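Protein modeling request. Please complete all fields; requests missing the sequence field cannot be processed.
Requester role: graduate student
Desired output: 3D structure, token encoding
Chains: 1
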Amino acid sequence: MLSPTPLTLIFIFAVLGWTGVTRLVRAEAYSIKEREYVIAARAIGASNMRIMFVHIVPNIFSLLIVGLALSMSGLILAESALSFLGFGIRAPTPTWGNMLSGAFGYMRRAPHLLFLPGILISVTVFCFYLIGDGLRDAFDPKIAD
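Delivered output (145 residues):
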């Protein structure tokens, strides 16, 4: 358990990482369910499936995209931190955490070996955020064109 393979780490992150986004989506679904247009659709006899797919899911989709993008960014940071500390994926498999851990001994002679993986982790996390924000803007029904 203290030296997981990549598949084991993915499984652990998948089992433990879904709860935050799920709570966020559930809360928003309950909020949308009580809005006037959903109550009006229910009053004119719309089925539950129609209400869900026409009114609730389009309004939740943008929130889900942003939540998943931030969650994936957090998982990248978590894997890098675990590998850097020696609890993640072991050294023959290249990860950014392993690169940071291996370069830590060369900090005085070759600092670029330490800074480059750190900068690339930051750029990747920032790109996930920008992609999630762009997809939210594209799929949000509340934003007028």
